[in-house]
Design brief:
The chain is built from six helices and five strands, in the order H-H-E-E-E-E-H-E-H-H-H. Strand 3 and strand 4 form a beta hairpin. The chain has helices at about 5, 10-20, 70-75, 110-115, 130-140, 140-180; strands spanning about 25-30, 40-45, 50-55, 60-65, 85.
Length: about 180
């Protein structure tokens, strides 16, 4: 017997969402909760990731497949299901946010590759401040490397400017001495 035939409406709804997510047997039940063992035990197969969508704001979340059942069972204070395997239809499309500085589409990606920095897939940062905080908290080492490289370039630029200024002053001084 399957859960769909005998399960509660809640279990049937979760099973339907699991099927929509890419397969009937993503999660299986090993033991159903009872008075001897109050927690249900489940197994997951195949391994991998799946995207679920917050129905309140449309935010996508990439989760491990084994977490799909618990995520689909989460409800808000009003008793409505929070996560679904498809984006909400009634929300207007959200403008895409800013990418992480380490995203593969960043204009400085070639330079970051030379530094050996990792690629980040984060694409929904709301503003430049969030990009900064994301870099400082999620990519501390990479952020430090970028800052150090920026300081090195700044010092190099200042040195070049000073050298050009000295050269100009020498040329100007040389012309003044020749005129006398």
């Amino acid at each position: 017997m399957t859960t769909e035939e005998t399960g509660t409406p809640e279990e049937q709804a979760v099973d339907l969402l699991l099927k929509e997510a890419g397969g009937e047997n993503i999660v299986g039940l090993i033991h159903k909760a009872d008075e001897n063992f109050p927690a249900a035990a489940t197994f997951s197969s195949p391994h991998g990731y799946i995207t679920v969508y917050d129905q309140r704001n449309g935010d996508p979340s990439l989760i491990n497949r084994y977490m799909l059942t618990p995520m689909l069972k989460k409800k808000d204070a009003n008793g409505k299901r929070i996560f679904w395997t498809s984006p909400p239809a009634d929300l207007p499309p959200r403008p895409m946010g800013l990418n992480c500085m380490l995203h593969r589409n960043d204009p400085n990606r070639e330079e970051y590759d030379k530094l050996g920095l990792p690629i980040c897939i984060r694409v929904n940062l709301a503003n430049p401040y969030e990009v900064l905080k994301h870099m400082q908290s999620r990519h501390k080492t990479a952020w430090g490397a970028i800052q150090e490289e920026n300081r090195r370039k700044e010092k190099e630029g200042e040195r070049r400017d000073k050298d050009a200024d000295r050269k100009f002053q020498r040329e100007l001084l040389g012309k003044t001495i020749k005129e006398k």
